[in-house]
Target: Intracellular septation protein A
Amino acid sequence: MKTLLYAIGPMLFDSLGVLVFAVLLVVGAGIVPATIAGTVVALGVVGYELARGKKVAALQWISLASVLFTAAATLFTGDPRFVMAKPTIVYLIVGSVMLRKGWLNRYIPPEQLAIVGDVMDRFGMIWAALMFTSAALNLVIALFFTAWWPLFIGIFPLASKFGLFAIHIAVVHVITQARLRRRASGLQPAAAE
Model:
């Protein structure tokens, strides 16, 4: 439970602009208000981190850049397809960033990293695969099932991420406990091979 609480905060914070955008779309606020609100929140997240003197995570910069680009394109053209295509582009970029070893390290307490760092790296690849799958699904829905897109974007990205997040946390917890028991009994070194 401690690991879950430690990880969920940064995950929600990193995605706050996108979450606001998706929720507003689902409740029927419209593309323009949802885009403006998502932009303001994404700017606020990055501004808050900078004001605190913290390093802004790569996912936060990506989210902000994509929100600003698609918001400008949508507001200048009045064409919501820019916003509909944005998640595909974002998922492809984020998936590519997630291929980098160690990107999940900020989501786990340092004392656990020495125990399950290898598991975190494997889950990094699984998260990247989810992003690439989400990119493909978003493009298909946006192009061929446009009327369903607001419902899709409001449910699938959050549901799939929270589902994988729950699995990820559970697996890491089980493996951590097993490795700690083995280490205590002298059967395994600090980290698995």
About this structure: The two ends are 26 Å apart (CA to CA). Residues 2-184 form one domain. The chain has seven helices and no strands.
